[in-house]
Fold Anoctamin.
Amino acid sequence: MMLQRPSADSSGPGFTPLVVVELASDTKEEAIAWLLSRIRDQQHNGGAELLVEQLGPGVEGQEKENPNMFVVGASWQRLLSGAEDVGLFKEFSDGSMRGFTCANKHNFKDFKGDGDDFLSMAECQYIIKHELDTLRAKDETHVPGYTQVKLYPGKSIIRRLQSKGILIQFFPLHEKEELKRLSFSWYKKMKLSFQPLDDIRHYYGEGQALYFGFLEYFTIALVPMALIGVPYYLFDWEDYDKYVVFAVFNLIWCTVILELWKRCSASLAYSWGTLSRKKAFEEPRPGFHGVLGFNPVTGREEPLYPNAKRQLRIYLVSLPFVLLCLYLSLYVMMIYFQMEGWALSVYDEEPTFWTGILLFIPSIIYAVVIEIMNLIYRYAAEFLTEWENHRLESSYQNHLVLKVLVFNFFNCFASLFYIAFVMQDMVLLRQVSLATLLITSQILNQFMEAFLPYWLQRRRNKKMIHKVRKRRTLEDKELPLAEQVRLEAEMSTYLGTFDDYLELFLLFGYVSLFSCVYPLAAVLVVLNNVTEVYSDAFKMCHVFKRPFSDPAANIGVWQLAFEAMSVIAVVTNFALIGMSPQVKAYFPESETQLILWTVAIEHGLLAFKFILTFLIPDVPKHIQIKLAHLEFESLEALKKKVK
Amino acid sequence: MMLQRPSADSSGPGFTPLVVVELASDTKEEAIAWLLSRIRDQQHNGGAELLVEQLGPGVEGQEKENPNMFVVGASWQRLLSGAEDVGLFKEFSDGSMRGFTCANKHNFKDFKGDGDDFLSMAECQYIIKHELDTLRAKDETHVPGYTQVKLYPGKSIIRRLQSKGILIQFFPLHEKEELKRLSFSWYKKMKLSFQPLDDIRHYYGEGQALYFGFLEYFTIALVPMALIGVPYYLFDWEDYDKYVVFAVFNLIWCTVILELWKRCSASLAYSWGTLSRKKAFEEPRPGFHGVLGFNPVTGREEPLYPNAKRQLRIYLVSLPFVLLCLYLSLYVMMIYFQMEGWALSVYDEEPTFWTGILLFIPSIIYAVVIEIMNLIYRYAAEFLTEWENHRLESSYQNHLVLKVLVFNFFNCFASLFYIAFVMQDMVLLRQVSLATLLITSQILNQFMEAFLPYWLQRRRNKKMIHKVRKRRTLEDKELPLAEQVRLEAEMSTYLGTFDDYLELFLLFGYVSLFSCVYPLAAVLVVLNNVTEVYSDAFKMCHVFKRPFSDPAANIGVWQLAFEAMSVIAVVTNFALIGMSPQVKAYFPESETQLILWTVAIEHGLLAFKFILTFLIPDVPKHIQIKLAHLEFESLEALKKKVK
């Protein structure tokens, strides 16, 4: 980490600021004093032993400005011991990845001198987040000044303040220089190249880097599909029955790429040291509430919420709600088909250019409505999952993903399935619905995701620079720290990779389910992904606050979601094959025979798919050997210690 | 462990004999002396630090008798430190299961005084096996006296002697008193009760106990099936189309019982301390050969065999061989159908009692032929898998199980599938084939498995007692140690639970695949299992050498095999449902509609089955909490050590 001290700005603190903590502007003095003392207190007194300072007033010093902004940092020694606490893996002198310990810090490859550029800034920020999160109440019964904000021994102070609204946010600071360099290598140079995944990981952490890695992998994996798709589209446009070969290709493609991704992901995670990193015990999420009791695992006092009650909420409220939403979505779909029918009848009566365009209108409206419904449902799902009161963030995420996935899948693909299998109208499916839905949703997504937030951010940015300009003439373009912090505090908060993965999931669905009917889908998705890389990179660098890095070892629940989609794709593709006139020609007299054969082969292929998944090892051989070697060494070391 | 010193027999060693090592009778003196000194040598000199003594001559002292029999034991201190080496889990004073360490031995629940009855005899024998197995060559280049038996530093001495035929066998001794008590509580008392799983585990180890636990679980799980089956059989005998309800029940049954078994198995393994026990690094199996090189994981010198070569052998030789065998089995099946047709034509010409019996003859012959083919194939599969030269015992086992399972499944069920789905002749399936196949194979199995070995053993036993009687009058019936050892050395070697699980697997197949057609299957299997418990228990106690205990945490690859069978069962049952006249009546005009609906519902159910598998946690909640608690404690301990 090569961080310059923020220029010649006298209002800055006496240490490198890493993380910003923003308290509510009306926070009572005694609470602030107490919090700061707990953060500064030494570790053997139960403090976090971090450095913290209040931020000086902004240039304007307006009344609107929140005075309770604090920057947090730490000494190098503290950060190194924190790295050991969080179980950071670093490259050892023999090239393997090992858990960092202060005791043999000099055996790690990049540890030089005092080790003051051993940790990246993202790692330092992650360590500070961890130390703040695990700063626990001692014998306080409540937060000083707030008798209603109860505490009990062992409760995470930060989480309590957060859930009570006293702590508004805490976020890591951007590094202007690093960011400039990263954004240049990432998206500013115009020639097509691989993404700088290691740099992304260095700046944003492993979770982000894995997302961009997956996006890149998925795009490259789509290229053969796209290449095969173009001639199909160009030469067989009116020949709807040549898609058998394409469907078979599709089938194999979606199984193989997901298996290979697991190996890619394991390689990346190994080289970043997250593959074999042990998960720390998860604390209850900030919003979790319940009756105080003793956690049977840790023996600590913490709120407990009976699992049976949660199950009741899930099965008696959430599940019926999801089903109701699916029904609504079905209803909207039916309205769409009526509109479609009406547009077709208008076109049939008077086939002009304008009525020809009218044919596409229902699909476009439907696509917009789908996006709006997805958005509203998203909020409802978040509310419901919050209300289910999950103890762990991971369990909350899983339930949220499940709810959102089911609805989005249904909302986006139900109409296509209906057209394909109930109406069996391949022309409508191909020309009108698929193309329009896909293109419209892509355009909407790009707009909602990047341009809108960018435009909002730009306005805010300009206002701030304008304000600063008013007060003093800026020789260099750099803002003073106080302004920089306030500017970043007002940036939107990046809400994680959820929406990005969701979008990829739906695109994967379009390609794997229906690209044999509409071969251009892969081409469109490739184009979308290329712009997606740029817009995602751009929004990460310029629109959002820097997120805390997230030491992920894989893409988590999304791997499962993509695999489920690939199973559905096998079934769908086989149904499409069974319906093709080409195949039907083989069984001229008996439709029963045709279906039985299709089903039999489909079962065989599904079985083959599962066997393939089982046979391809999830972790490449050379990494397996390295992991086994480390484990063997630790076993041997244990044996020696015993004797 | 409460072992009396073997009576007043002066030829016994000065310690409790645990394990017998038998060397070839023509082993050179210097090799024996070297081996004994290595076994006795102290640990810091690289020895095993065990006690070993040559067995005195038998009563007759015939020339035929092998003089090179040794009994091995150890001091209590050595056994306790060995228990730590093998990572034994024992009950701690707070009721949790923890890895035993000598340092805090007094905190373990059953540790009293010196701890001389802390370990069971089976555990002691397992420890001795481990210590012998890991007795490694130092700087010897070959076994003294045998220049062709090469050694290199780190090579397991015992395994090399074993693979070169110098070491004939090593096996643990039975405990007469224990065995008497166990066999009484297990199968001698006539009232029906649960098996004494803890006692079985105490005497035979976890692998055996899990097999008997599974056998018991499976039998109990079958009881509802059997109860429903009997009225079906009694009242609907001629009404072949009432099986839809039964098929649906079947479907749910086989999914649920396998999921619940996982939980049962986890509970058992936790209470026996094998659930969270870490696996030690696997040594190459004795038969493994290759060019000397360095193992990339351990860094030790050991034979290496290129994986590519093994893959070639698997895909170019083993796979075609298996396919050929399947083809052969198909051919035999066709001959069976011809015989069946011939018998039917004879019966039709002249329907008497004798020609009525003739109807069953082809099925009986076919069942016998199937058993013989399975047996021959079993040997071929063992030979082939040996030849594939797998490095690890576990990988060898997996490949063997896969080969044997595929063939056995095909051999036993192909004819039934053919009758059900190609000939669609439910009467033949039910009355002739299923019943005859099932009953004949059960009778054959019981005979081959228990009565034949018992009869052989009895003859041997009598001869030995006769011999002893000739020499001296026996007041008490106990044999002197030397005779006892020689008697046990001649008992058959128990080859593991493979064949027992295989038999259960095929029975599970009969029940889950076809019991809706032949509801009595469950009843027959329950009866078979009850006798199986007795005959298995009997053969374990009286026919076989005591096996080394095997610290298994679950039933391993068999869980997977049973789950695969249950998926096949879902598909089969749905096909049977689709073919039933009852269901066909709902779709009088269109067969296509019928098939499409059946397939759609089947897909839905398969999906539901997978979701169910996913939702039911494999480990019961209270054990999850205990495991998490231990892990949390070790993490906290690590943190404290650091600070």
Remarks:
- The interface with chain A takes residues 43, 81, 84-85, 101-102, 278, 280-281, 296-299, 571, 591-592, 595-596, 599, 603, 625, 628-629, 632, 635, 639, 642-643 of chain B (CB under 8 Å).
- The two ends of chain B are 42 Å apart (CA to CA).
- DSSP finds 20 helices and ten strands in chain B.
- The longest strand of chain B covers residues 167-172.
